[in-house]
Amino acid sequence: MKVSLNWIRLMNTNYGTSNSSELTDVDKLIDKIGSQLGAVEEVIKLGERYKGILVIEVVSCVKHPNADKLSLCLVDDGGANKTVKRDDNNLIQVVCGAPNVRTGQLAVWIPPGATVPVSFDKEPFVIESRPIRNKTSHGMLASPKELALGDNHEGIMVLDSGRPGDSFAKNLQLDDVVIDIENKMFTHRPDCFGILGVARELAGISHKAFKSPDWYKENASLPIDGRKNVLKLSIKNQLPDMVPRFCAVAIKNIKVGPSPIWLQSFLIRSGVRPINNIVDITNWFMLATAQPLHAYDYDKVKTGVLGTRMSKTGETLKLLNGKTIKFDQPAVVITDGHKPISLAGVMGGADTEVDECTMNIILECANFDMNTIRRTAMAYGLFTDAATRFTKNQSPRQNLPVLVKTAHDLLELAGGRLASPLIDDIHFKAKKQTVKVSVGFVNDRLGLKLSPSEIKKLLQNVEFEVNGNHDLVVTVPFWRTDIEIPEDIVEEVGRLFGYDKLPITLPKKDLTPATKDVGTEFKTKLRNIMASAGTNEVLTYSFVPERLIETAGQDSSEAFHIRNAVSPELQYYRLGLVPSLLEKIHPNQKAGFDVFGLFEIGKFHLKGRLDQTGLPIENEVLSLVAVNPYTKGAAYYQAVAIAEYLFGRLNITDIEYLPLTDVEKTTKTTWMNSFEPSRSAVVCSGDKMLGIIGEPNLNLRTTLKLPASTSMFELDIPNLYEAQQELIYRMLNRFPSLTQDICLRLPATIKYGQADRFVWDELDKISVKDGYRYDIETLDIFERTKDASHYQITWRISLSQPNRTLTTDESNKILDELSTKAKTKLKAERI
């Protein structure tokens, strides 16, 4: 944003004219802006390009004797230039080709030795005395284009004020310095996109009190005579949420023409091209207050109605820049009650443009939702000055004073009279924002020891209202929309005091050990155990293709669908980790690995399962796939062996394996479908289900080309954590153990797991009662081919006493007791 220091002086009467040290010491000011306000991108010392250029009076203007289109002029510079040659009347001869030069005019003279301003930044063109058609011209009378004050090159610039010999730069306040401050620094400061806000901020960081102009008050009004309301005007705001405030007034019998030169010069140095007095005054106040305005030709609107609504697909609008847009993305538009006449907050329409024939206008000042304007600007590539300001969340509470002052000044510049009531369509509660903050809160966060009066002074300098002593109540000015919480006040005080003045101290280091995260610690423990079991950890994508979900027998409708997936192979959030691990088996086998185990710790989600906050539940699991073609028997037992090693390290002793075929359908979940029902089991500990263990289903084995020796498990990590028990040290027994085998003949209806659980439970009861220690090992399971109604299981049981040597009679008694209970409960016979 380009900031004119002369414009700053106009906005703050406390600066006086040009004697303020805060503004005259430019280098110091730039350092202060850089450290406390924003990065300075460029400094333009505008006065240097107008050095030596003077205001003159054309005393005589006659036709050039040797040229039809040239004039021979004598000009009076008040004797200001001491080097140029003069005639006997102390006048200077200048040859001029402009058709509008006349005797008695005040014009601008570029003397010999001065540089033409328009060439200053390119290839400087220095004027010198030289003959033109045998008549010497000492310098030139300049046009607006040559003075870099417009595009008009058809005639000289004629001034309406000044005296011969005055500095032209001082006459139009061009003895100025323009500072270009990076816009990004003001992103959260909508007020600083206007000269008024920057002036206030410069006063604040200089520890000077700022006072806004008298007209800049929230409750402003226009002195309108109801008898003169001759133009009908109404507002139909259909979008009160997106257009919280819409103000407008009609003005009749205005005269459109060029703006005064002083106004044009201020616009040009701010990077805005002058158009006419109506458009220029709206741009002036936009640059001054950061509040965009727009003027419509009343007679082109025709209906006398300004409406707001969303655009309709297929509608078109020709804009002021000549571009016609076709609405394919929704945008807020200003209408005449029917068709769009302006793209709200971005750019006006060409059909209602103010031109030299305009006599009546509608002056509009509105506020728009910043996010809506940002989307519109992005969608249609229109990054205008108005859009830039509206996307910073301008305060709707400043609309009225800006509109009132603009209308007042417009009447002075263009004549005319107010022709309608001032309409204020308002849809928000205009209440004062207050923030409570303590002095200690501010000092603790800034590392300062400011007194309450010092903090008050800093805030009051930029027009905050502050009450209280140690507990402050800060009333936020109506133009600030960025102050809401106590931390905002801390930032305000820190910036105004000066961040460069904050104490530089190293932070205190707290040596208190950080609290360990039990979940992270437990997962690290699981990784170490699985690694010690000889398996390797892998990390697979959380997103999987639909074909893998369907191959696993799972339902893709239960998976979250990624609408903006980076690849068709990554469209769904997985319903379990096992299918992703199984995909890695065949590539590893092709690479020459025939015995390996892969595990992963990760998460999966099921659609519809939400926690108390309404977010999807994260199912954390430990998954494993193992391949070993050299293991005898069912592949299922590979996974069981690794799982039991894990359970042993976690000291989970009450493990039970339930056939997957026996699990009720109501308790089954979709992630179980990747397991072969007849060759898998649910792992339980007490009343908790730890997971599922077994072999992949036939579809997975076929599609993924899995070997027959593939086994897998998926265990619930939270349940594993709750089931683990603390390891208790027990001294080795000093007395020998006694080992005996027991063989039971069981009905085929009794599953092995049920029988094995029975033996463990009964010996556990005996050990608790009599203090025995025991260990159990399954030796074999024998089933006759011809008689499938019964089968036999042999266990090897080791018994001991910690305080004495166990006798054979005691051992036999324990086994007899076990056999008796097995006959009663399992209908088993001891062999």
Key traits:
831 residues, alpha+beta, 7-stranded mixed beta sheet, 6-stranded antiparallel beta sheet, 23 helices, 39 strands, elongated
Radius of gyration: 44 Å
| Sheet having the most strands | 7 strands, mixed
What quaternary form is this? single chain
Q: Beta fraction of the residues?
A: 15-25%
Which whole number gives the mean pLDDT? 90
Helical percent range? 25-40%
Task: Tell me the layout of helices and strands.
Layout: E1 2-4, H1 5-11, H2 21-24, H3 26-36, E2 40-45, E3 54-63, E4 71-76, E5 92-96, E6 106-110, E7 130-132, E8 135-137, E9 140-141, E10 158-159, H4 168-171, E11 177-181, H5 195-205, E12 234-237, E13 245-252, H6 261-269, H7 277-289, E14 294-297, H8 298-301, E15 305-310, E16 316-318, E17 324-326, E18 332-335, E19 340-343, E20 347-348, E21 361-367, H9 370-380, H10 385-390, H11 399-414, E22 417-418, E23 423-426, E24 433-438, H12 439-446, H13 452-461, E25 465-467, E26 471-476, H14 486-497, H15 518-532, E27 536-537, E28 543-544, H16 546-551, E29 572-573, H17 578-582, H18 585-590, E30 596-604, E31 619-627, H19 636-650, E32 655-659, E33 675-685, E34 688-696, H20 698-703, E35 710-716, H21 717-723, E36 738-747, H22 752-770, E37 773-782, E38 790-800, H23 808-826, E39 829-830
Parallel strand pairs: 12-15, 27-30
Antiparallel strand pairs: 1-11, 2-11, 3-4, 3-6, 4-5, 6-9, 6-10, 7-8, 13-21, 13-22, 13-23, 14-21, 15-18, 16-17, 18-19, 19-20, 24-26, 25-26, 28-29, 30-31, 31-35, 32-33, 33-34, 34-35, 36-38, 36-39, 37-38
